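Cont'd.
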Amino acid sequence: MRRLALSLVVAGLLVAGPGRGQDLSGGGYLDLRMVNTGSERAPVDGGPGKTRYGDDGTVVHLAEAALYGNLQLTEDILVFADVRYEPSQRTAVDLIESYVRYRPLSLSPWRWSVKAGAFFPPVSEENTSPGWTSPWTLTPSAINSWVGEELRTIGAEGKVEWRGESDRIEAEVAVFGWNDTAGVALADRGWAMTDRITGVFDRLRLPNALSTGGKGAVWREPFSEIDNSPGWYAGVSWKHEDWGKLDLLYYDNEANPSAFDQEYAWHTRFISAGTTTGVGPVTILAQVMSGTTTINPEGDEDYDTDFQAAYLLLGYRLGRWRVAARADFFATEARNYYAPMRLSEHGTAQTLAVSWAPIDSLKLTLEGLRVDSWRTQRLSYGLSPGQVDHQIQLGAKLSF
Amino acid sequence: MRFHLALSFLLLTASLPGAAATLKLQISDQGGKSLADAVASLYPEAPDVAPGKPMPPHDHFIDQKDETFVPLVEVVPLGEVVIFRNSDRTRHHVYTFSPLATPPFDFILKPNEVSAPIHLTKPGVIPVGCNIHDFMINYLVVTDSRWAAKSDDKGSVTLADVPPGTYTVKLWHPRLRPGAAQPSQTVTVAGDQASASLSMTVMAPPREDDRDHY
């Protein structure tokens, strides 16, 4: 059934093709990378590394190929889908987002809308380009790497907007399911810096250190319903023409921390605040996130992991050039875990990216990423807990 | 809310006292850069100023092309008519909830369709949007001035047939800081040619275009 739904979406996108100014419109891109890393084994390979690509020297990768499309079914109803090919995902093609939005006209400053399907909660200040990518960097911040890996609203979101002369206030509330394992990656693996978004049908690899004997592969399905009860989020955002925007979100997947169905439900809740603003010609993006994820396998004691992260990105744009510098801070604190399993961590990361779009359909980006982190779990790999990971990427994104 | 209007205006006079003049205004922003799409409206200070030749009434067409309203700003003398046209291959749902549009209007335009004429009877700025494409915006500047026009790409406004006299020039721009009073300045017209340079404080243009991902 899920495969049938996906094939229909893909067929629809192929019919839509590229274009603007049609009731059926869309586009796509192919993202190639030449990567040089001085990092530990990557998380996608079960390693303790913090970057998308791990210990394999200089290699050319196809990061992803994506197709997205909009169908304006009526003047009030929009259907959107974004599908992707990525070499390491479970299915050949996976769904990143797909939803239906109903937004009737309002002849007053107030307007309401509702959307239903699978979509990202409104956390990120960075991921504003097609395919939930960032126009500034190849690799998102630690916060938005995690959002891409483990969060998807599979449910419905209602929104109310108030539209003033120069500002706009939006408030949204969503109810969702199938996000009961969100948080396991932060607790059992920690933060990572990766632009590999987990597709709706995909799974996420966790460190081999978690397996019996420490060598086997451990997987989790982020988009699973385990306790048969819904989660929710509520957010508010203020946009001002001159100043920029401010966003606030509270998320709680309301998972029962004792529920189990092939994997544990992780009760994850967080508060997130973000801003997009600027000073003179410099764009400023900043976000902070703080939360806790809990499991209670025996039903008698909570195992809590607190998590926090923040970043500040300064961007400068000149025509078809962009330069971005970002500083990330992240930490987790595992409480009530017995000593050998201690999974806490802390770290910082610095990202510098320069991009140039010589023509509309090609964007070249050179990005350097350095992640300096301390994680006791590395002892299980025979490594020192403190490590510095480096990743340099030259990306070529061909869009149509 | 702060604004300022630079006092740096020049006044050039020539011969032929009593004849109507062509008034050229040069509009710039606070940084001295030429400002396009600024609307200048002239109001005589003395009520007995010669009326001059009225602007010939005409219909105002607003096109929709590549999901953009063209032009961004249209100056509409009070009582004149606006017509929207869709040159895209997609539908547009044109609307405004401005109380200056009586009543507020909305209509769906299919490709190549043209709207019914809309009479505008209250002076002021009416923002118009598309409910399908939220980023589309257009401003109808309905004016009760006999002499009003918008600046071209070089920031230049030309007002024809302005009789000699003293006038208040009121300026408006889409990026005028909301809540700020409209900048205004006095100019004197004598002879058949007059010009003035005016500057106004506006907000910086948006940092990102929703549809531009270079």
